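Narrative summary of target 7.
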Amino acid sequence: MRYFRLNLIIRIVLLFVSLCLLAFMWLGTELVAATLFVGIVSVVQAVSMIRFVEQTNVMLKRFFAAFHYDDFSLHLSAESEGKSFAALEEVMNEVMERFRDIRSEREQGYRYLDQVIQHAGVAMISFEANENINLANQSAKRLFHAPQMKHLGDLPPVLQAEIRNMRHGEKRVVKLDQGLSNLQLVLLLTEFKLANRPFRLVSFQNIRAEIDRTEQQAWQKLIRVMTHEIMNSVTSISTLAIALRGLFFKKEVYTGEKLSPEDQLDARNAMALIQQRSEGLLQFVDSYRNLSRIPQPHFQLLSLQKVFEDLATLLKKQIEEEEIAFHLKIEPEKLELISDPQLLEQVLLNLLINGMHAMEGASRRDLILSARQSPGVIEIAVEDSGTGIDEEMLEQIFIPFFSSKKEGSGIGLSISRQIVQMLGGELDVRSTPGEGSCFRILIPV
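Modeled conformation, tokenized:
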């Protein structure tokens, strides 16, 4: 800055001297040529001083113009103007270099994000308020067989209508007929803003294959169970029918009048077993029918304290007879839930009875019915101190007709899970062999 001031002072002094000399020669002499020359020198000095003073403005103008046009390749140099501008030049160049680095990092981040989106297995499109699509990844183009997607109108009409009616964070399931293939898509829409411009991002996930696979596995499990139960009964009935036929007929000749007392006893036993197995088969079919007879829920606001107390009263006698320590825990005490009271009590009653059966023969008999509220979910748990469940059985206990008890029908837990899902929640289990089990109902709120 000292050089700048000194330079400016010298220029002012020289300009002052030139103007004084010009005035003297103009008024006191008749040297026209010399006067004209001094005048020209004075003008040149004035212009030079103005340029010198405005050099900082020129540099700032170039600097901000580079930002305006996103030109970060500019390199400022003021060496010819003197050392007074060196510090300013250095700072400006450092700022310009930093912005070059920021833009480079931003472009690299954009390319990375673009590669991630393009290789994502979920189809995604992004569009603006005018419905022009500015992003469509490869999965979306393959899903809709559209190499180019420039407008929302390029999508099938049923999807256009659904997307226009969706709100931020909303999820919908849409069936789409693609001619040779049928799709079942889960749509999820997100709204956001960039530079005050509204955008909408929609993801499409085809779950048809997963649904088909799940349905196939469910049918296979159900067919295995039904085949096992029916074959057990039918094989026994067939064997007993053949034995009875042998008692009454010999080579198609009736021999009933000649039956010995022993044969008569065998015949009565065989008929009793046929009746027993037939009734068992009818009971099995009736249990299967019950799986599809769950009534639709009627939701209302419930006090979990009231529900728990009703269950405790209902099971009081059985709990006392089996010497079970029954505990109720609710946090907070006034916890309420929107649900169907009859269906919820049916599930909890089944879980409590199962817990009591699991503690048969156990030295410690603790049965805990608890409820607590966590962020976004209400958890209702039934915990016992019974024998626990083996890891292999944990994967099968919710399968219809699977039971670890000889007298069990095997549909209680299956119906319970189905009811909980109808109530909008999930039913899971955690168990440690030899320590007990905990069945949890998780209901979002």
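The longest strand covers residues 182-194.
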